[in-house]
Amino acid sequence: RAIERKNLQTDNELLWRERAQYLPLQELIGESEPMQKLKEQIRRIAPLPSTVLIYGESGVGKELIAREIHRLSPRANNKFVAINCGAIPETLLESELFGYKRGAFTGAFEDKEGLLVLANGGTIFLDEIGEMPPSLQIKLLRVLDTKVVTPVGGNREISVDIRVISATNKDLQELVKKGKFRDDLYFRLNVIPIKVPPLRERREDIPLIFNHFVKILSNKMGLKPPPVDPEVIETLKTYNWPGNVRELLHTVERIIALMQGDKITIADLPDDIKNQSVVEQFKASTDINLPPEGIGLEDFIAEIEKKLILQALVKAKYSHKKAAEILKLTPRSFRYRIQKYGIKEGISDLDIKEAETESQDE
Question: In this structure, are residues 188 and 138 in contact, taking their beta carbons and an 8 Å threshold?
Answer without folding.
Answer: no
